[in-house]
Amino acid sequence: MVTTFSRARKQRIDALVNSGDEGSSLLQDAWARLKGSPLFWFGAVIVGLFVVLAIIGPWIAPHDPGAQLLIDQTSRARNSIAPAQDGFPLGGDTQGRDLLSRMIVGARQTLLVGIFATLIGLVGGLILGILAGAFGGWIDTLVMRIVDVMLSIPSLLLAISIGVLFTNPNLTSVIIAVSIPQIPVFARLLRGQMLAQRESDHVLAARALGVKRGPIVFRHMVPNSISPVIVQATLVVATSILDAAALSFLGLGSQDVSQPEWGQMLGEAQGSIDSHPQLAFWPAGAIIVVVLGFTLLGEALREAIDPKNRR
Which of 43, 63, 98, 289 is the most buried (most CB within 10 A)? Predict the structure, then answer.
């Protein structure tokens, strides 16, 4: 029986070797799983369309988003706005501006806030996470206590607290207010990944060979710890868009009406939402769809790179 088992095992090994199959990398395995994930493609299509719209929006908008072209059909006394008509498929807003043009152009401002807020939070989190994970000791303790304090405050509340510090709110102030609460999220995640890498075989081997701390950190620990952080960044884009919309809704966003943003449009619609709910429906629906797209994309990426899913 033992001989038969050994012969069968040898045959399977020989068949594998002769077939030319080679071990696949983590990225190859992840992409193979992503290709078969409906959630990934659904999220990718939403995000792709959103990005394309944000890029070409100002050129395809039918009218100037700040021009009051329908002001003659708008009356605050009778609480009326311009209805849908030729050349204005969604009608106008309370200021007589083309609602469709504002929706299209507003995609760019929304994307800028989400991307730049995430990038600033990512860079700040990488700096703190690398310091804590690479040095340990009192540096790790100090960084983590700062992170714990920031995490103890709800992200939206912290963003609002930062936003009210600016006397003249604009797009830059929104990006700063939204990005700072994201820093501890990235810092804690990267620090945990680097602590797991610190005792790995390849790091211990590098130390035994006398490699200095800098090359060990940036050639071995960080590259092997960064994947979950990148996936988290995809999810944070969705959170940043929601937080930015909340700030704009509260009046802490950009005051430039010629450069609309979906959260700003929600804030402008709150005074007439009972009589003209469509003014809030379109920007709110756009925010929900885009956030859903980034969330699905991030969750699909997270599942794809999870080592537990490797076969």
Answer: 98
